[in-house]
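quick one before i forget lol
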Amino acid sequence: MTDQSDTAHSPTLDDKPPVGEADVAAGLAEVRAQIRRAAEDNERDPGGVHLVAVSKTVPAEGILPALAAGQRLFGENYVQESKAKWPALKTRFPDVELHLVGPLQSNKAREAVELFDVIHSLDRLSLAAALAKEIERIGRAPKLLIQVNTGDEAQKAGVAPGQVDVLLSECRETHGLAIHGLMCIPPAEDPPSPHFALLARIAERHGLSMLSMGMSADFPAAIQMGATHVRVGTAIFGRRAKRG
């Protein structure tokens, strides 16, 4: 399974993160400006496009400049890494909304439900069952998005577009889960817009309001196609080191 990061469309570099404090603030400001321009260019309200700053592999001190600049939505790929750094940060910044944007193993469902406010990577019935069990047990219900493998890539997580209807029905009717939207990561070699358009059509058909699509390399195109949440890391925090 591939690493679902916001560097999916970019080369993997070995530079040590994070970039300097001023660079994080400047990167965040530039991304916000680009989101605003893309929304206005497509006659959308910029307030309807939410920036999820992807802070995977960035240590807590590297995240502080973004927090200081008012950023409150953050995305992480790994449950264990998030457990190590976010509880203390959320104590200091209780209005943070934490998103899990990477793949989730069913045996991590309990920890994910405890820690995350939004889970973007629901993609199979076994995970739906695990999440439903933990939501009932803990009494806490993160918003859930179904991840769609719009390119039918064998190595990538996500449900096939043709199976979304079945998974969505099972989540709702069998497990009593509220599904809020869809997420996708287009194939690196494909133009992203057709994949974003496909995801938007599926969401519209099912009355789903959240569309998590677009990363550092392609978020303006995602906004054009209706994204409500864009997941941007590299353009804010710089290249990340490979995860060991």
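fyi The two ends are 16 Å apart (CA to CA).
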